Hints:
It is built from ten helices and no strands. The two termini are 29 Å apart. The protein is globular, with a radius of gyration of 16 Å. The chain has helices at 6-14, 24-37, 43-54, 68-79, 86-95, 100-110, 120-127, 138-152, 157-165, 174-194.
Amino acid sequence: MDGLTLNRLEKDAAEFDVFDSYVYERTYFEILSFFQDVRILQESHLILFAQIIYGSMPTMVNINLKNTDRLLTILSKARDGVEVNLEEIRAIKEYINNSLVGTSKLLHFLNPTMYAIWDSRIHRYITGKTTSYGIGDVQTYISYLERIRDISSQDGYNKLHQKIAKHFDYEIQPSRVMEIIMFQTDKQMKNLRKL
C-alpha cells in the first residue's frame, strides 16, 4: 500500500477539480440510504443488493445463494460494525460474481464507516499496474482498509476531508473521500494518456 499516502492524496486533490463531471453524487446517496434503511437482512435483500450494486457496473450479476444463512450472518455482522475476516470476505465474494469489486461495494453500502469501495481505478491508483492482475486478492483489500484507517487518523487528514466533504449535503466517510480522489485522479490520468 505504499502508493496510498496522505501527501499523495493532498497533492492529487489540489491538482484537479474533484467534481468535474462527477455524476455519482446523487445516486450514491440514494443507494446508501436504501441499504441503511434495511434493518433485518433477508434472502430477498441479497438479490436486491446484488442487482443494485451491479446496476452501475458493466458486468451482469451472477448470484450464488447456496449458503444464504451464513451470508446473511456475515453481512449482518458487517452492517452492525463487526469487522469481517478474510474467510468471511471470501464467502461474500463467492455470492456476488466471485468479485471483490462487487463485494467491496456491498460492504461499503452496508457500513461505509468500516468498508471502502475497491475497483480497477483504485487498484491502478495504488499499485500503478495497468492491468487488473491482483484486483481480486482479499488480503490486498484488507490491507487497503487498514491503510485508509491509518491515513484518516493522521494529522492533516481533516483538512483534506473538509475540502471534499464541503461539496456534499450529507456526511461522507474518510473511505469515500479517499475513493473520490483516487477515482477522479485515475480517470483524469487515463484521459491524459489518450491524448
